[in-house]
Amino acid sequence: MSSDSRGSREEMLAALKRELRKSNSLGASLFRVAATQTGVAADTDLQVLDILDLAGELSAGQLAELMGMTSGAVAKILNRLEASGLVQRERDKIDGRKVLVRLTRSREELPKVHLVLAALEEQWDELASSYNEEQLAFLLEFLQRNNALSRQKLVQLQETLPVERNIFSAPLGDLAHGRLVVLSAGIRLILQTNEGMADLYQACFKGAVPNVSVQDGVVTVRYPRQFLLLTGEQRQAEITLNRAIPWQIAVQSGGSDVIAELGALDLTSCEIKGVGSKIQLELSRPSGAVPVRISGGGSEIVVRRPAGVPVQAHFKGWGAAWVFDEQTYLSNNVKLYSPDFDPTAPHYLIEVTSTGGKATIASR
Fold this sequence. Notes:
32% helix; Arc Repressor Mutant, subunit A; 35% strand; 6 helices; alpha/beta
């Protein structure tokens, strides 16, 4: 090969790589503009719709891999798209731990998305009309190999990305149930749930990072004692649980704000201890007799359950005010029942122990 031809090939390869980079950049820009025109919340949402349109059906984990995002981030996208009626999620009939995602054709927004994508395909049709079958076959092979290599590179990059110390997760695997244990003080603790996760749990921490361990489905979050001596530092723990399995929850967190949004979780038991804390607990419909125990002197406690869910409430403690379904009680030891309480039906057994605080149990 002559030096002239070698130089020509190198120049051509350099030009080709520049054009491929431009193509990738323009593709991202097109998604952003198309998202605005179709009313989709973000370009990443439109990209998910495009992937599902091409694939037909994928698991939430496969979507996360193809998007180059965490399963939690993809779950938030799916929440938006499902609320808009653009996608639907359902359990795999073979593997109940897996969530399958597919497009739904029941809303007018989806045809708008198809119109944008169809406009691109018309442009490609016009471009391809100037090439013969042999040239088209070559281009097809090039693009197929490029896409396969790009996907391989995406996986490699995801594997080598540094993991931030304050973000934790663990795979769900074949676990049939989970248990969360949180030991802390002086933090803001947010508990929430997600159905589209591939992980057992996900946790994000701000400020001091606790010790986190996972063994046999038991997730333990423990803030070392020396963290309690730190001043002027805001500490927050946001923990998301996979609601594909039932959970037990145990929290010991004095002087904290505890917000537990468990309105879609299959809860088998819950215990929260927090002296001087503000505790807000939102419950789902129980699948059996579920014990809930909350204690904390000088605390403000609010527990809400779905309307019509029967409950037995036991209040214990001095100098506290009890509110049960809009009725106030001042006794130091009172046991109450909802009008529809049936011990043979699924119900909550809620026990609240507090001194000098206020506790409210209500329906929503």
